[in-house]
């Protein structure tokens, strides 16, 4: 990316005037404003990250003092048979949730786009899942997923003649059920971003297309979607990160079960760290997850740049 | 002095703990602060440990002992020097023993497991209390098939089970049946060494029996394989299931929420190949390392195990008992509690089996929970094969704990 802002030409100053401090005042004030946030980040984000990295090289014994084990923790986690499965589940869940939310979000955005008065209500209502706490959402869905005939979702699908499903209780459907809930929750968020993106689409293009007799589908395909390209990239990046670090929904709904069928990286790391008390191995898992997220983000960014040029 | 207890904040149990601490303050003059925490209890202890600022006293499950010893969180307890220590049941002391043979806690509360059953349902379907596993299975089928709640819908199950993997629940639930059949997870090989024994026929038979309930007769409440105890308690209370193999700590709650005449407590029938037995568990008073108040810690432990402390903790018949069964042999439980159903748990305690004092039981329970949950969730899974694999995993775990 090239900066469009050329540096302002330096004003020539007559010597003796304007003390040195003036030159520093601007940046200094900026940094001062940033300082509280940076300090908080430093203390609650960056220091813990480095401590995590450091601890991943130890057998962590919080009270006795840690024991150096080098890369053994990494070896343990990478050779753990559950680790591979957890990565696979994370990826499936991330992909499914991302694609589902984007497609549905786009459809919803197109449906409720426009300046009509009553739409604010629809938009607010649609946005509600996003502002509700994940734990609460998951708890409600857990009740709706009740696998018996009298479970709420089973009653609903019964209306269209579908047999009751085990939802979370079967290893064949647990991951898909979690995905369904995640899509429900993620869609409105994507919808809002799309709505923001749609505002930026040049209206005259639509008018021109209408004059040329283009169908709705062609307008969508040739005007709307290309104009939304930057939005897609933002959503892909966000969704990839969100997808990999999914935790609360899985923890509340299935805790990785049954039979490990919905175990994702975060629940595995949690289990290792806080249920088996192997904090060193869990830290190593955390670092692996961080690296995976980093690689994924870089890939998306590279693809984006390639597209842009 | 800070006392942590693994109970939900503001729960009846937390109030009982507060009562116990207040009585202790009155008797000793030592000021106390009770912290009741339920979710992620061990995580929060870990955070305190990292800051080298553990609470002075922790009242927590006996099964956490090895875990806490291996982290260096606990001070050894001199059994002989602990006033009243000689009045405690020997079985309870076993649950306070570390893998090195030293005592690392004062036993505080004990529990065994039994079946809490919907008496009204059992009478409606016209069956006697089960004497064998076969009877038990038949009762479960009747509860599932014969509409015991009489609402005209097939919406009841026989068993309600917390068969998820959180905190190792699947293993916890299966334990009582495994012990009731004479099986075990690991056995002592002498001199602090252990060998895995989950693939022995008696253990396999117990897990197979349960798989049949999940898969063949389908008499377990739907969704059990991803439920923890919190959800399972509600399933029982909502009348979605009629047989709950559980500890006595929920008895007062169910009596209140379901109705006292609808609830009965029956012992776990012994298995076809052995028994009797149930899981033995309870809570210990742990004296935490790094405390500035060692004298007060010891005094609190002595108060907690004294007849007075035990009686306060028992909380009579009311909800919120933090002493489920008294560990002090001089306390007469039937004098404290009128409800005869408690006695079933007390009688079962005579053949309760505690987790052996391996360095760390937590990973063994978690690993076995993962496997047991798997064979219940996947009806095509072969129990024997899965238990053979689990045996290998437990052997490796024991090796890594240097206990095999």
UniProtKB/TrEMBL annotation, chain A:
Keyword Ribonucleoprotein assigned: no
Major localization listed first in the record, in broad terms: membrane
PROSITE patterns referenced in this protein's UniProt entry, alphabetically: ABC_TM1
Domain ABC transmembrane type-1: 87-300
Source organism superkingdom: Bacteria
Transmembrane segments: 28-54, 91-112, 118-138, 227-248, 281-303
GO cellular component, one term: plasma membrane
One example of a Gene Ontology biological process annotation: transmembrane transport
Subcellular location: Cell membrane
Annotated membrane topology: Multi-pass membrane protein
UniProt entry keywords in alphabetical sequence: Cell membrane, Membrane, Sugar transport, Transmembrane, Transmembrane helix, Transport
PANTHER family xrefs: ABC TRANSPORTER PERMEASE PROTEIN, INNER MEMBRANE ABC TRANSPORTER PERMEASE PROTEIN YCJO
Family membership noted in the UniProt record: Belongs to the binding-protein-dependent transport system permease family.
Listed name of the protein: ABC type sugar transport system, permease protein
Organism name: Nonomuraea gerenzanensis
Classification lineage: Bacteria, Bacillati, Actinomycetota, Actinomycetes, Streptosporangiales
From TrEMBL, chain B:
Any GO molecular function: maltose binding
GO cellular component, one term: ATP-binding cassette (ABC) transporter complex, substrate-binding subunit-containing
Keywords assigned by UniProt, alphabetized: Signal, Transport
Any GO BP annotation: maltose transport
Pfam families: SBP_bac_1
Domain of life: Bacteria
Protein family according to the UniProt entry: Belongs to the bacterial solute-binding protein 1 family.
Protein name, as recorded: Putative sugar binding protein, ABC transport system
Species this chain originates from: Nonomuraea gerenzanensis
Lineage, highest ranks first: Bacteria, Bacillati, Actinomycetota, Actinomycetes, Streptosporangiales
């Amino acid at each position: 990316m090239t900066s469009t802002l050329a540096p302002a030409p330096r004003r020539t100053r007559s010597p003796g005037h304007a003390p040195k401090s003036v030159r520093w005042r601007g940046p200094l004030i900026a940094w001062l404003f940033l300082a509280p946030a940076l300090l908080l980040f430093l203390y609650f984000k960056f220091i813990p990250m480095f401590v995590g990295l450091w601890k991943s090289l130890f057998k962590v014994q919080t009270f006795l003092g840690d024991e150096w084990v080098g890369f053994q923790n990494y070896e343990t986690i990478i050779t753990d048979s559950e680790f591979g499965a957890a990565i696979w589940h994370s990826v499936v869940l991330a992909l499914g949730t991302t694609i589902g939310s984007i497609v549905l979000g786009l459809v919803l955005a197109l449906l409720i786009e426009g300046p009509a008065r009553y739409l604010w209500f629809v938009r607010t209502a649609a946005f509600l899942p996003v502002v509700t706490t994940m734990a609460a959402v998951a708890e409600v869905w857990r009740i709706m997923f009740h696998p018996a005939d009298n479970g709420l979702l089973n009653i609903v699908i019964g209306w269209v003649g579908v047999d009751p499903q085990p939802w979370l209780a079967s290893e064949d459907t647990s991951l898909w059920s979690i995905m369904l809930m995640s899509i429900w929750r993620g869609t409105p968020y994507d919808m809002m971003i799309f709505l923001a993106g749609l505002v930026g689409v040049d209206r005259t293009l639509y008018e021109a297309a209408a004059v040329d007799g283009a169908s709705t589908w062609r307008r969508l395909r040739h005007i709307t979607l290309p104009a939304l390209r930057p939005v897609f990239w933002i959503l892909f990046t966000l969704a990839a990160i969100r997808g990999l670090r999914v935790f609360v929904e899985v923890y509340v709904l299935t805790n990785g079960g049954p039979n490990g069928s919905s175990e994702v990286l975060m629940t595995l790391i949690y289990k290792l760290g806080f249920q088996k008390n192997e904090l060193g191995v869990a830290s190593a898992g955390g670092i692996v997850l961080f690296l995976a997220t980093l690689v994924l983000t870089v890939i998306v960014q590279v693809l984006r740049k390639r597209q842009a040029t | 002095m800070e006392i942590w207890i693994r109970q939900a904040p503001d729960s009846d149990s937390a109030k009982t703990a507060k009562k116990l601490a207040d009585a202790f303050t009155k008797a000793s003059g030592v000021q106390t602060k009770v912290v009741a925490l339920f979710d992620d209890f061990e995580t929060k202890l870990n955070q305190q440990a990292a800051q080298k600022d553990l609470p002075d006293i922790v009242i927590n499950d006996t099964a956490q002992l090895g875990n806490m010893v291996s982290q260096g969180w606990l001070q050894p307890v001199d059994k002989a020097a602990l006033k009243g220590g000689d009045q405690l049941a020997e079985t309870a002391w076993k649950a306070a023993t570390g893998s090195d043979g030293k005592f690392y806690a004062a036993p505080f509360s004990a529990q065994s497991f039994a079946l809490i059953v919907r008496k009204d349902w059992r009478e409606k379907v016209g069956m006697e209390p089960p004497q064998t596993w076969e009877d038990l299975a038949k009762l479960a089928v009747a509860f599932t098939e014969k509409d015991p709640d009489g609402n005209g819908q097939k919406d009841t199950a026989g068993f309600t089970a917390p068969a998820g993997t959180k905190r190792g629940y699947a293993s916890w639930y299966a334990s009582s049946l495994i012990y009731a059949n004479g099986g075990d997870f690991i056995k002592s090989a002498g001199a602090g060494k252990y060998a895995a024994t989950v693939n022995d026929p008696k253990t396999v038979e117990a897990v197979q029996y349960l798989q049949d309930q999940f898969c063949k007769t389908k008499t377990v409440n739907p969704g059990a394989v991803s439920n923890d105890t919190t959800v399972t308690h509600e399933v029982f209370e909502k009348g979605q299931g009629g047989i709950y193999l559980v500890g006595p700590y929920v008895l007062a709650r169910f009596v209140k929420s379901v109705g006292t005449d609808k609830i009965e407590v029956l012992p776990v029938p012994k298995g076809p190949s052995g028994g009797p037995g149930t899981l033995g568990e309870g809570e210990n008073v742990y004296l935490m390392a790094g405390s500035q108040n060692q004298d007060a810690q010891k005094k609190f432990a002595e108060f907690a195990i004294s007849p007075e402390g035990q009686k306060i903790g028992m909380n009579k018949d009311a909800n919120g008992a933090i002493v489920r069964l008294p560990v002090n042999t001089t306390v007469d439980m039937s004098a404290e509690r009128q409800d005869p159903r408690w006695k079933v748990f007390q009688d079962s305690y005579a053949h309760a089996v505690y987790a052996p004092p391996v360095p760390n039981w937590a990973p063994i329970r978690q690993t076995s929970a993962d496997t047991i949950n798997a064979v219940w969730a996947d009806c095509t899974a072969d129990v024997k094969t899965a238990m053979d694999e689990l045996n290998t995993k437990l052997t490796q775990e024991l090796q890594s704990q240097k206990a095999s």
